[in-house]
Amino acid sequence: MRIRLSVLALAAALSTSAAADDAPSKALPYTPSLDLQSMDRSADPCEDFYQYACGGWIKNNPIPADQSSWSVYGKLYQDNQRFLWGILQALAEKPDTDPVQHKLGDYFAACMDETTVDKRDAAPLRDSLTRIAAMKNKSELPEVLASLQSATASDGFFFTFGSGQDLGDAAQVIAQTDRGGLGLPDRDYYLKDDEKSIKLRASYHAHVESMFALLGDSPKSSAQQADAVLAIETALAKASLSRVDRRDPYKLDHKMDLKGLQALTPNFDWGVYLARRDLATTVPFNVAEPAFFKALAGEFSKRSLGDIQSYLRWHLAHAMAPYLSTKFVDADFDFYRKTLRGVPQQQPRWKRCVALVDDQLGEALGHEFIERAFSPELKKDTVHIAERVETAMREDLEKLDWMSDATRDKAIAKLDAIVNKVGYPDQWRDYGTLAVARDDFAGNIERGNRFEQRRRLDKIGKPVNRGEWQMSPPTVNAYYDPQMNDINFPAGVLQPPLYDAKMDDAPNYGNTGGTIGHELTHAFDDEGRQFDAKGNLKDWWTPEDGKAFEERAQCIVDQYAQYTIVDDIKINSKLTEGEDIADLGGLVLAWIAWRAETTGQNLQTIDGLKPEQRFFVGYAQWACSNVRPEQLRASALTNPHSPGRFRVNGLMVNMPEFQSAFSCKAGQAMVADKRCKVW
Which residues are catalytic? Predict the structure, then answer.
């Protein structure tokens, strides 16, 4: 299973603020990469650097009513999304476009036609609901599941199925199947017995009941079906690995043939399932969690057909609710955004429609974005910074006193093999076979799901395409892929204030350089270091060097375990270990790269900030944010990133260069008695 290690996994939860004057934009606004108004200069940087760098931003940027959190990344996502809105609205109103642009315009227009969507109500579910109701026995489950998974692309139907690089041979793509089947965000929501968790499960039960009621079921039947859903999902949760366990790729590496897979679930005919998904029975599989599938077989045996049908009906309604009439959309929002995340207000429809186009036609929309918002000069500048940061990593590896020459040589070979992908893919995805209708929003969703599912399944048994991207060009995020051994920086994350061509090198190296260094460090964090230069899961460390790494990483784990997220909830630092290591490594590498870039230059104090201070403030301001307590509680269970405050202050205590830049003294909060350092 491919493990994606993202620098700032905030983008999925962030979009624009709801405002009465929201309107599409024809240009991206400018915000400087070092914003003096975002600072709080009354704060002592040696006591709370996050407050010093971000206090003004925190004060002046309350969380919008339709968001669970708000951040500098969120505002850039807002700017990009409004800009894309302008592009899509123009395409929807302009009939004489080329076929791809016409498809984008029709998709957006169908999504925005709320009147037609409301008139159809739950009609888009009719065929699938009929198929579920027509089941005569559980032997029909493989065929029904194959159909539902293809149409919805949901991970809620017992398990997930797709493709991915072979962990042992990253050059090949094989079939992959993994745990799934939950309606709550994580297994721990079902297993924790504290008061808040019990109350949340009761709210979830009530929500499931309400969805059955919207499907036309009686109150008594809805309650009984919700009981069945919770019982099945709780059993699946108990059989699932924790998120911390899943950080160990060896625990997810179980390659087998059809016979081995069939032995795990003897009462589920995988031959029928594969045939329904147009796959040969000879393909190799990676079964991420074999124990889960054994437990799943037990559920198939013990649960009645009626309970299984209720479970399927719920997950169908849950998967499709955002694309149905307003009453379904509102019910879905009330639990998943208001109750779970503390968001008081639904996003306006245009935001949801822009996000859907980006999700299902991302590279087509990305091409439009690139033509308007990303220059060759910007790509050249980013590649240059990346090369500087990689040189800093090489220098660091060459002089590490805790690493032997045998491991060092392989580490440098891996570093040299890393590919930097900047802005957009070299070859754009072809959406020619995806049919889009201007008057069929839910149908477009289903056809888009089937198109993407087919595209991924068609990779099985073929060599990996190393030119592929996992994010669309407008995305405000970045990632390192350990099996591809590449770093990916979409054009969306290379806009001001994250990269600012008008600004001096110090904040740009602090921000974008820190991001590049973060992703580069992921190649050598607790997960990434287990993959070799070709992306294969392979131990290339000597035992002594592996132990030395773990000792240094444990210092960071111990440090972050002391930080409180909200209430009495501490950071689960084994979950955040990789991101915390990457944050610190990225900042160290960015500092080295910036110093090399500016060697011999006569750097000046600007706006009362010395160059070294501008570097650190430039780094910190990407993390300025406000987060609702409900979102913080949810993140404590599911998010492998620490909260923004600790992604800044937690680094500065380990950086003697920071302490020198701000003349911090021993005993102050930003000066640690024991410094942690891996890379």
Answer: 519, 583
